[in-house]
Amino acid sequence: MKRNRFVIALGLLAMTGAVLQGCGGKDNGNGASSPSASPSASASGSAPAESSQTPQEENVTLKVWGDLGNQAVLEEPFKKINAAFAAKYPNIKLEYDFAQNDQSLNVALQANELPDLFWVQGDKTAKMGEMVKNGFLMDLTSYNLDMSRYSESEKTYCTVDGKIYCSLPSFFDTNVVYYNKDLYEKNGIQAPTTWDEFVQGLDTLKAAGITPITLAGKSEWDRAWPIFAFAPAFSNTALKAAQAGQGKLTDPTVAETLQAFRDFVDKGYFGKDYLAQDYAAAQFAFTNGKAAAIIDGTWSNATYVDSGMNLGRFSIPNKEGKKVVQSSYSNFMTYAVSAKTAHPDQAVKYIEFLNSLEAQQILEDAVGLVPTLKDITPKDEGVKELAVFDEAGVNIYSVLTALSSQESNTADVFMKDVIPKLMTSAITGAEGAVILDKAATYPAQ
After folding, report:
1. Mind listing the pLDDT tens digit for each residue in 292-322?
2. How many CB atoms lie within 10 A of CB 130?
3. CA gyration radius for the chain?
4. Which domains are seen in the chain, by residue range?
5. Which among 26, 36, 15 is positioned nearest to 229, based on CA atoms?
6. Residues 178-221: tens digit of each pLDDT
């Protein structure tokens, strides 16, 4: 994002966060909103002069940016969401375009030409807070959004300095192993209950000439999903301690997390062509049966369901058999309003609609995410399978973001330096942990 035009752009660009793809994933990716009467409020939160027309009466057009990186997943549900909104508010026209990625958002911030609404990642990264500090987002607090359906952690996701800045999250993102049940059954493998069973199954598949796990080595975020999944299983306690300043990233379990990823490389579990493979190619290798599994976000569930394969899902168990998963709220429906919008009241109507059960159920029925609100009905049994885990653990990217400073972006070091070196067997897990430790800024005790 950015600060004083160009300076702000450079500062926020350095804090690029997880498209936790959704990030989902957060992750790519990578912790779960509502309508009400809305008093008028200006971009700064103070009440503007009363309009002679209500938001329903005044004909306006709102420019909205959708998530370009997840257009394939989100295009159909957002057509339905936006059509339902138009039926409710016929005088508010939406120009909804899948135009937003990190680059386009940074350009818009630098030029101070944001759309009326655009998606944000809440407190998953530092970006929304930076935009708030530099006056780019409209404070929604005075609109008294109905947040009665939401937990405190979901409200916190959208809160900066005690004020609300986006629609609230209602779905949970994590990383799971999607697997081909036919290939597993053919080779006598079942969904594992311990880490050792998981690895033994991979050895069996490799011996049968099947790529155990396909990996998008060319994609900065998608190649990171295995470590995002391993981290809470191996080092949840150590990562929480490091974030609190009560431990260090040189903890042996952090090194073990990173080494597990390198071991998968060295043992050939990712096949032969993973370094040159992009995300689409990795997904195709899985859906066409060349690879037995892929580690991906819950946000990609619909893609694999639509392939028609005999699909299974499991969270990675640790050595004791406990399934501790990366936790992150989905940003598929978390939108903010530009502080410079000419139509704040109407923009908040869209925020309110995204917070509604009606809009959330449309997304659930289309994509099959893990709901965090009890009144959202899971799409099917597959969604329930995604939610089978014992504990929601830390998101390693969020931990490393918290340990970053203006001088050293620890999360960036992880994504751009440590993971590529592990993936090419240039460093060990212990060496990677030392690199992260040197880049980290721990909170003072």
Report:
1. 999 999 989 989 999 999 999 999 999 999 9
2. 21
3. 22
4. 6-173+330-371 (3.40.190.10), 175-326+391-439 (3.40.190.10)
5. 26
6. 999 999 999 999 999 999 999 999 999 999 999 999 999 999 99
